[in-house]
Design goal:
Layout lengths: L1 E11 L2 E12 L3 E6 L5 H8 L7 E6 L2 E2 L7 E4 L11 H11 L4 H14 L15 H10 L8 E5 L7 H16 L3 E5 L3 H7 L2 E6 L2 E7 H7 L4 E6 L4 H8 L5 E3 L2 E5 L6 H10 L4 E6 L4 H10 L2
Parallel strand pairs: 3-8, 3-9, 6-7, 7-8
Antiparallel strand pairs: 1-2, 1-4, 4-5, 9-10, 11-13, 11-14, 12-13
Length: 298
């Protein structure tokens, strides 16, 4: 299954919020959709969900026009939309039935997800008595109730402590192994980087970078390597072999290959000058660095 957004545009009055938004994602892969506040992330998701009709462009599923109301979608909005004073199990069953699930199945699935996120004991409680983090867990699992093929999650880790964040990372990884298609937005880039296969960076309504995250990192390594050494006098040697002044952090040096030198030749040169190498690896920038550089360029 492949989901494709092609040249989506959207304006509110005289303000153009989306400008030719284009990216593609597939089943079994997680797409991290990233951008600053006000960049157009939520508007894009709402156009995808047909909450807003785009002014132009199209959304395709396996090459055919995507019809949100007839698709199997689980959606987590950034804003909480559940009822604070209603019993948790009752409203989970209610939301599931709204999407066409029969009551018996809805009840079984709600109980399953409550147990999976370790909140079964609260099934008869009102949502408002739960902590902020546990309210977010309930909000998230409502997106999973109908066993959707497509999951669109807006800031899923908001309000979750590290233990619950790990719980949901494990759940998302399980869903990806089942072949689900996952698109989500988050400002917490460490979580995105941990399990996202693809990314799309949006800035001021435009896609500034999209593609396979590993390939993007490789392309943006800029012929740089990381050298770890315990040799005290290593800096002067590394500095003499690097195309640019090396960056030192403890025993780690980030250095840039000269145009005429391969990684093998650099390693040989370091060893020949008595540098004891603990590790020697390609330098790969973090997702946060890629984001800052992509947005900063504009």
């Amino acid at each position: 299954m492949q989901l494709e957004l092609k040249k989506l545009t959207k304006s509110f009055g005289d303000v153009q919020v989306l400008k030719d938004i284009t990216f593609t994602t597939r089943s079994g892969r997680a797409m991290g959709f990233l951008g600053r506040n006000g960049s157009g992330k939520t508007t894009t998701m709402r156009c995808l969900m047909n909450v807003f009709a785009p002014d132009s462009g199209e959304v395709l599923l396996d090459g055919k026009p995507f019809v949100a109301k007839s698709a199997s979608i689980g959606y987590l909005p950034e804003e909480r939309g559940m009822y604070a004073k209603e019993p948790i199990l009752e409203q989970l069953v209610y939301f599931s039935q709204l999407r066409g699930t029969d009551k018996k199945t809805a009840h079984e699935r709600a109980l399953y997800w409550l147990e999976r996120v370790e909140l079964s004991e609260y099934k008869s409680k009102r949502l408002e008595v739960l902590s902020k983090g546990n309210q977010q867990k309930i909000q998230i699992i409502q997106a999973f109730l109908t066993d959707p093929d497509i999951l669109i999650l807006d800031e899923p880790f908001s309000g979750l402590d590290p233990v619950n964040s790990q719980l949901f990372k494990d759940i998302i990884l399980d869903l990806l192994q089942e072949g689900k298609l996952v698109v989500f937005s988050s400002h917490q880039m460490a979580y995105v980087e941990e399990f996202c296969d693809d990314i799309a960076l949006i800035h001021e309504g435009e896609i500034v970078l999209t593609g396979d995250l590993k390939q993007i990192k490789k392309e943006r390594s800029w012929r740089q390597v990381l050298v770890e050494t315990s040799t005290p006098e290593a800096f002067s040697v590394i500095d003499s072999l690097s195309a640019e002044p090396p960056e030192k952090r403890g025993q780690n040096y980030r250095m840039t290959l000269r145009e005429e030198m391969s990684k093998e030749e650099l390693l040989s040169a370091l060893l020949s000058q008595g540098i004891k190498i603990e590790s020697f690896n390609d330098y790969l920038p973090s997702l946060q660095q890629i984001f800052l550089e992509s947005v900063g360029e504009r």
